Amino acid sequence: MADVHFDRIALIGIGLIGSSIARDVKGLGLAKDVVISTRSAETLRRAEELALGTSYVSSPADSVRDADLVIVSVPVGASEDVAKQMAPHLKPGAIVTDVGSTKASVIAQMQPHMPSNVHFIPGHPLAGTEKSGPDAGFAGLFRGRWCIFTPLPDTDPAALSRLKAFWEALGSRIDEMDPQHHDKVLAIVSHLPHIIAYNIVGTADDLEAVTQSEVIKYSASGFRDFTRLAASDPTMWRDVCLHNKDAILEMLARFSEDLAYLQRAIRWGEGDKLFDLFTRTRDVRRSIIQAGQDVDAPDFGRHALDTKT
Ligand code: NAP
User: Fold this and answer.
1) pLDDT tens readout for residues 100-130
2) Which of 25, 82, 121, 150 could cross-link to 30 by cystine, CB 3.0-4.6 Å?
């Protein structure tokens, strides 16, 4: 069994994901030292107030010195800049990983800067919320959630096993795939749902005919389920769209075709087609619950909360 403990971990980026990792590392005692760096002085100060690490520095270069494990948790569009800054200061033999939501682009941005004597292993924990920043993170965020690795062809198996064991210690379930496949899968399970949510919430916001107060007032009839996704961090999602362009456009084309089919069925009163689709989609929800990826409570278990208000 690979050793999940590290002498020194460097966390570059300490938002929702970075700070959740920090909380787990601290809670589980997975490192002697946790060095945190982030772009702004304000976030760095907040990380220190929350005691997320053992030391706090302003530059990625300073954070990675002597670190055995480096985890980059910044918006995917900032990956190259961070890689360039830290590369000359990485400890030989260090494992360098990331948590970015797109993989081919992150690899293209980071790999060329990685010295040959470190192990660069791209990763992506499929866990998160619509909140961002160091206050949004929490211990246990990764428990029961998948973490996908997209190792490069020459990845050292021992380093990969160690990184997998680390994420398993955080409660993650582990999978491995090539970066292009990851980007395609994520385009449908994550990126498209967010884009659809941003779009529908944007449309409702534009519809002055239905007053905005009515959109808010009657939102529990369905609209509010989209608003959670559409409240996600604009920087992160701008970068995801720009850095997984091809897979997202491919899925959007497919989605538009299927939407046209639905539109036609509604126009021509083809109830059977509608019924068949709505039955098939219900089964998808059941499968998600069976796979332990959501709870079986009606309306995501919000009923108790609704009746209090
Ligand atoms: P977040 O809460 O917004 O935190 C972002 C962190 O990156 C902060 O420390 C921020 O620093 C720093 N940062 C922002 N812009 C930067 C730039 N241009 N250069 C250097 N650092 C920058 O974001 P997050 O939700 O933790 O997401 C981090 C990564 O995890 C992203 O790549 C995202 O795709 C991936 N991810 C997110 C989720 C999710 O649900 N949120 C799930 C899985 C993976 P300052 O605050 O100091 O500016």
Assistant:
1) 999 999 999 999 999 999 999 999 999 999 9
2) 25
CB of 125 closer than 6 angstroms to any ligand 1 atom:
yes
Residue of 102, 236, 242 with the most ligand 1 atoms within 8 Å of its CB, for mutation: 236
Q: Which residues pair with residue 95 across a beta bridge?
A: 69, 119
6-177: CATH, from 1.10.472.20, 3.40.50.720, 3.30.750.24, 3.90.550.10 = 3.40.50.720
The strand order across the sheet containing 146-149 reads 123-125, 146-149, 173-176
Buried b (16+ CB within 10 A) or exposed e, 189-201: ebbbebbbbbebb
Gap from CA of 7 to ligand 1 centroid (Å): 24
The answer to whether 148 and 124 are in contact (CB under 8 A) is yes
